[in-house]
Structures are given as structure tokens and as C-alpha cells.
Amino acid sequence: MIQDTSGQDTVITSNKRGPSKLVIAVVGAVVAIGGFYALSGQSSGSANSSYDRSRISTAVVTKGTFIKDISAQGEIVAAVSPTLYASGSGIITLHVKAGKTVKKGDVLAEIDSPDLRTKLAQEQALLDSLRADISRLKIEQKKSALSYQQQIEVAELDLKAADREMNRAEKSMKSTAISDLDYQKARDILERAKVDFRHIKQQAELSSETVAFELETKQLEIERQSLLVQEYERRVELLKVRSTVNGIVARLDVEQKANVVEHTPLLTIVDLTEFEVEINVAETHASELGLGMPVNINFKNELYKGEVVAISPEVKDNQVAARVKFTEKAPSSLRQSQRVSTRILVEEKANALKVKRGNFVESGNYSVYVVDGDIATKRRVQLGSKSVSEVEILSGLKAGEQIVISSTREFKGVDSIYLR
């Protein structure tokens, strides 16, 4: 008979000790964490996650006057800074150096132009010749008038003598003292004397008119030549380069004794009595710029009023240049090339819904998180005009509501978030 294994069995006494302390600690931690999240879920309602409130910035939506403006950096420039050019070709002699203070009318440089001076001398000689011609014509006019006056007087004497002979012939004819042939001869002499006298007078008048016409023509030539001489004198005088304003020589564009041609830039003068601000506005705002727009100029933390007086017609490096002048007394401490900041006031709206400008504007995401107690809820909004510090709200928000204006990138686009 085969025996079973009961003879090999051994009775084991069981250890009745409770669970270890480590197990109890792990279970407690799990329960605590679960309870925390349960409580968080109960307090946050439907929030998808939580975020530290101290790490966000908020702003309250308000209603009031909204001013749309454009911020631009500027540089102080002289309002008047003329560049002087060469009026002729030649060798230039500079009388000033860069940085020299000059007054209006001062001779700053001279150009030696032999060609221009020679041309002036030639035209002046021609003018003198024309003046001599007119003097000669006047003398000839007097001589001609004297000659014709003598001829007229002789013809008048001949006419009187022929008239007397005719009177004697008529008396003699009545007494038959002379023949009819002698009578007709006396009458012919009288008629001839009349014709000669009349022709001499007409020739004298015609000669006087001819000389007067020649004098008038010559006088017109002299006037025309005088204008030409004056023009060359003006051009020769312009060879002396004079300052057009009171100021400082900013720079010299040519070297001493350089050979320059006409219209070459020579030097630039800066008028330090009047300044403007040259600003560069981003191309995206170029269409909003307009002449006469008011501008706030911030110089050393003080605001000064100005207005836009010039806008460049071209875009360079994605920017549009413009000029702003001071509409009130400018600060006395202004210097060329100083940097200032400006705000161009484009538009003003009364009773507009607005909020402080935040990261949601720059990111192009027109969804904002509206804060209500400990919950920030995502909401779609429609924005209007934007200024440097504020943005207009067209729809999606009401006055008094609070929104997050700091970066919400870490919210990861959730619909709501608990602010702890």
C-alpha cells in the first residue's frame, strides 16, 4: 500500500503583525493628493488647469475718450540747413572751415572762372561799342538836320525870288512890257521853286524819321546788351559764395583749390536758431499720417507741442520719414542730432470702450482671458483702433470686466484656468 505525504507536512505558525509603516505612508500620500485635486476641482468648477496668480498682469475695461496715436523715435535737425552750390566752373578758394560761425552775406568761398570773366569782358566791350554807335548817330542826326535846314532856307529864298519875278511879270504883261514867252517862263520858275521847297521839306522830315528809327533800334540793342552784361556780372558775383543764413558751417564738400564744375555742392550751413524733429514711422502706419497732425514731443521727460509739416513720398527700410516742427517755444537746450521720442495723435474718439494694451495685441490673438474671481475664462473679442498704451474694444467685453494683459502662452489655449 502506497503511503501519502501526510507524514511530511509541518505546521507553520502565522505572523499576525499589521501592514508596514512604508505602505501606510504611501497610501496616505495618495489619499492626500487625491483629496487635494478633489478639492481643487470642487473650487475651480470647470477649470482645465491652474496657474499662479502672481505671475499674470490684468487690466480693467473702461469707457472714456480714446486717443489713437503712433509712437516714433526722432532726431533733432536744423529746420534750415542750406547746401551751397558752385555757380560756375573754376578753381575754388575756401575762406572758412567746418564749425566756423558765419553771418548772412559773409563770403565763404570764391571761384576763379577765367572763361566767365572773359565772357563778361567781351559783352561789356560790345555794350561800349553800341553806346559809341548811338553817340555817333546822334551827331549825324544833328548834322543832317543842320544840312536840311540850310537847304530849306535856300529853297525858301528861291521861292520868294520866283514869286517876286512872277509879280513883276504879271504887271509887265498887263502893260505889254514883256512877251508871253517871258511871262510863261517866270511862271515856270515859280512853280519849280515851289516844288523844290516842298521836296526839301519832305526829305528833311524823312531823314529825321530815319535817324530817329536808327536811334531807337540802337537803343534797344543797348538795352538788350545791358541785360546780358548784367547777367554775366551777376554770374561773376555769384562766384563769391555767400552765406544765406546766420549759422555754423556744418561740413565742406570740396577740398581747398579744387577744380569744381557748375552745380557742384560746396558746403552746408546749419541755422541753429530753428529746429525740427525728423521721425521715422513704420510703413504699416504710413497711410495714417497726415500733414498738420498734432504731435507730443518728449524731450528730457518734458512734453512739447508740435505738428507734422512734411512727409516723405518714399518708403526706405520699411519706414517713412517725416518732419515735425515745434508749435510752441522749443527748449533752449536743443542740439543737432539729439534723440527724442514722439507720439503722433491720429484720432480721438469719445465714450469708447478701451483697455490697456497687452500682449494679446502684439501676438495677433484676439482672444482674451476674462478674470472672474479665481477663474480666467477665454473669450473672443473684436478690437478697433490701437494706440501706444491702449486699444479700443468693439465687442466681446463690457466696462468693468478684468482681463489678462500679460503673456498667456503657458495657458496653452485652454478654455478656462484656475488662478491660485
Description:
The protein is 35% helix and 32% strand. It is of the alpha+beta class. A six-stranded mixed beta sheet has the order 1-22-18-17-21-2, with no helix packed on it. It has a six-stranded antiparallel beta barrel with strand order 3-12-15-14-13-16. Strand 17 and strand 18 form a beta hairpin. Helix 2 (114-174) runs antiparallel to helix 3. The chain starts with 20 loop residues before the first helix and ends with a strand.
Counting helices, strands and paired strands, the structural category is alpha+beta
Report the order of strands and helices.
HEEEEEEEHHEEEEEEEEEHEEEEEE
- Percentage of residues in helical conformation: 25-40%
Head-to-tail CA distance between termini: 80 Å
Reported for the largest beta sheet, the result is:
6 strands, mixed
Radius of gyration: 54 Å
Low-confidence stretches: 1-7, 11-18, 29-45
For this structure, the quaternary state is single chain
Number of helices: 4
Mean pLDDT reading: 82
Indicate the proportion of strand residues: 25-35%
Give a count of the beta strands, DSSP E runs of length 2 or more: 22
C-alpha geometry: elongated
Output the strand order for the largest sheet.
1-22-18-17-21-2
